[in-house]
From TrEMBL:
Belongs to the FAH family. It holds the Pfam family FAA_hydrolase. It comes from Scleromatobacter humisilvae. The lineage of its organism: Bacteria, Pseudomonadati, Pseudomonadota, Betaproteobacteria, Burkholderiales. GO terms for biological process: carboxylic acid metabolic process. Residues 75-280 form the Fumarylacetoacetase-like C-terminal domain. This is Fumarylacetoacetate hydrolase family protein. InterPro entries: FAH, Fumarylacetoacetase-like_C, Fumarylacetoacetase_C_sf.
């Protein structure tokens, strides 16, 4: 089941596709079940709600404005250095514990929205990643129960301002420029992919050229391990987003480096989940 959060004519809506096309409702319609973020926050059965939308009017996703599946997550927790080939190109050793850093909601944009290249830097890099949305809260979650806490999966481009990232030992500044974190286009419920989204092809393409290609079975710390290890320190809440790390092929590691420029299009594709596509705009033009 794919479920999308959108806006049209000033009204937010929800639509689902179980294989027969997109059908949905807006807040103005009778029987509207709530937005996707609201339903996740309530712990609702997304598969059941998605199935109930099958009899609703057809929705043309090209005629509406898509929104991030969760536009304002309680927490956005990102994992660095979680693929061996990315470690190798970065010249770093394999971690025994995941590298965790935070993003904030002001950095999020949706599918088809422009990634903003700030005037302070030309070192805007791409990072194709799998995103996890938490649907069941918990603390100190055992690994064998961790997947029951997942509401669904999505795609993320953890676009990074590399020179700002490397100015300090902490990566916060380089990872949180406004309009740099593309998230979407929709949420895929866990029943539609292998457990833990394991073994799915992941690819990042710049202007159609494949720059990153790997599989989610090559994650050093998989979905269940990340949920277990992160929840030791903090309670995971409904709507939290975990971004699982990027494979090798990032622009900063290439010789010469390849950074995104205005007019470029970057696509993240994950098998069984979909394609996230965003054009790059200079910030003055994007806003």
């Amino acid at each position: 089941m794919r479920i999308v959060h959108f806006e049209t004519g000033g009204a937010v809506g929800i639509a689902a596709d179980a294989g027969s096309g997109w059908h949905g409702l807006t807040r103005r319609d009778g029987g509207f079940p709530g937005t996707l973020p609201e339903l996740i926050a309530q712990g609702a059965d997304l598969v059941r709600i998605g199935a109930s939308l099958a009899q609703s009017p057809a929705i043309d996703l090209d005629a509406v404005r898509l929104l991030p599946p969760v536009p304002a997550p309680p927490k956005i927790l990102c994992v660095g250095l979680n693929y061996d080939d990315h470690l190798e190109e970065s010249g770093l050793n394999r971690p025994v514990y995941p590298e965790i850093f935070a993003r904030f909601a002001t950095s999020l944009i949706a599918h088809r929205a422009p990634i903003r290249r700030p005037p302070e830097s030309t070192a805007l890099d791409y990072e194709a990643e799998l995103a996890i949305v938490i649907g069941k809260p918990g603390r100190r979650i055992p690994r064998d129960q961790a997947l029951a806490h997942v509401a669904g999966y999505s795609l993320f481009n953890d676009a990074t301002i590399r020179d700002f990232q490397l100015r300090t030992p902490q990566w916060t500044m380089g990872k949180n420029f406004d309009g740099s974190g593309a998230f979407g286009p929709w949420l895929v419920t866990p029943d539609a992919v292998p457990p833990g989204a394991h073994g799915l092809r992941i690819e990042g393409r710049l202007n159609g050229q494949v720059m990153q290609q790997s599989s989610t079975d090559k994650l050093i710390f998989g979905v269940a391990a990340l949920i277990e290890m992160i929840s030791v320190a903090m309670s995971l809440e409904r709507g939290d987003v975990i971004i699982t790390g990027t494979p090798g092929g990032v622009g900063a590691a290439r010789k010469p480096p390849v950074y995104m420029r205005a007019g470029d299009v970057f696509e993240v594709e994950i098998e069984g989940i979909g394609v996230l596509s965003n054009v790059v705009r200079d910030e003055a033009d994007a806003t």
